[in-house]
Amino acid sequence: MGKRGRACVVVLGDLGRSPRMQYHALSLARQAALEVDIVAYGGSEPHSAVLENESIHIHTMIQWPKHSHSLPKILYPLLLLLKPVIQFIMLLWFLCIKVPPPDAFIVQNPPSVPTLVAVKWASSLRQSAFIVDWHNFGYTLLGLSVGRSSLFVSIYHWLEKRYGQMANGSLCVTRAMQHELAQNWGINATVLYDQPPEFFRPTLLEEKHKLFCRLNRYLCHPLGVQDCVSTGIGGYDQTETLVTTQVGTSIFLKPNRPALVVSSTSWTPDEDFGILLEAAVMYDRRVAALLDENDSTDEGVLWKEISGGKQYLYPRLLFIITGKGPEKEKYEEKIKRLNLKRVAFRTMWLSAEDYPLLLGSADLGVCLHTSSSGLDLPMKMLFKGFPDECDSLKSLKNGALEMGSSARWATEWEEHAKPLILEVISRNLK
User: Fold this and answer.
1) Strand order through the sheet with 190-191
2) Is 134 exposed, middle or buried (CB count within 10 Å of its CB: 0-12, 13-18, 19+)?
3) What are the tens digits of pLDDT across the range 323-346?
4) CA atoms of 138 and 21, how far apart (whole Å)
């Protein structure tokens, strides 16, 4: 192509909370040797690999105010109309004026309105290719908040389908979505599974120790007065954490450490955390029954024994729930009222560098996402090598791998996304 090619990745959302689009940007820069512009909202910091790559240029848009829910409900239909209009104008300004002309726009869907419309217009004006990465269907997500029978959902569905069909190329996250797009939308999409990049892996012991040293300030503050994790944690220093201890230059796992369960969420209605809370209560009561404990058992004495190093047949459970979203406070209030003896919860937002380390430290990962379309398959958790004797979890792992792929992101992108993107760009330049 003579000069170095260019791509523009478009996210009408917080870039730091859009890992797949960050991985697209990295692959476009590293594997396709393209200059990459990212147009997105700010908020959470992207991964350092994105920030430090000299070929990636981030353009941050001003975000729509988040406090519109405090306005009278009678104004809600007006806001539904006004918000996409403002976003549309802002997107056109960035895509047509602020960023250099790209060979291709690659846009995340959803949200569909006004994103697909704005990117299609910009691609026509700048004679660029238009590629859609289908994560889900936007009209089904809108239906969760306003009802599937709403006129707004019907209009949204028509726009999403109409402008989706105008794309020069399409990617999607599952074979089921690929089939739906082909059969009912007239769109031929290439499947690109949500695979983890190279920095997702089992966490080394030294890394785990340093991570929990950093997390100590979060762990010592329970969602309530006190719990089985917060008791005694205040005395930890750089040689001792909740799960590790350092003796000289050697680091060891504590034998009475809690089992770590990690769940990542956007705290939205399509993730029912009530299921996880019920499971926590069931575990707590079941262990108490097996150990012949009753409600009069003093949890304060129990917690002091645990913090003093006493081991029990059944471990404490520490649930760390990461993410930001609208229903976080609601569930935190529910957690405070649970009154559990052997289960503790912590909610937090981690940096893009610490998040993979936490996942790599987990004994179990849980994803409670329920697809609004029934067609996307979120890969928020990594399977970490379950014990051989745990047949049910081995079956779950094998089933998920059969539905997807065990490849890393770079391999998956090289095989499926790169040929499509380069072909679309080449076709558009002719």
Assistant:
1) 56-61, 35-41, 6-14, 104-109, 129-134, 169-172, 190-191
2) buried
3) 888 888 889 999 988 888 889 999
4) 17
Are 360 and 206 in contact by the 8 Å Cβ rule? The answer is no
- pLDDT tens-digit map of 171-212: 999 999 999 999 999 999 999 998 888 888 899 999 999 999
Contacts 24+ apart (CB under 8 A), 156-160: 156/112, 156/113, 159/112, 159/113, 159/116, 159/117, 160/109, 160/110, 160/112, 160/113, 160/116
- Asked whether the whole model's pTM tops 0.90, one would answer no
Measured in residues, the chain has a length of 430
Return the exposure string of 340-352: e unless at least 16 CB atoms fall within 10 Å of the residue's CB, then b.
Answer: bbbbbbbbbebeb
Please, which residues bridge with residue 319 across strands? 261, 345
- C-alpha span between 405 and 177 (Å, rounded): 16
> In this structure, how many other beta carbons lie within 10 angstroms of the beta carbon of residue 71?
12
Q: What is the pLDDT of residues 71-103, one digit of tens each?
A: 666 666 777 678 889 999 999 999 999 999 999
Distance CA 126, CA 97 (A): 10
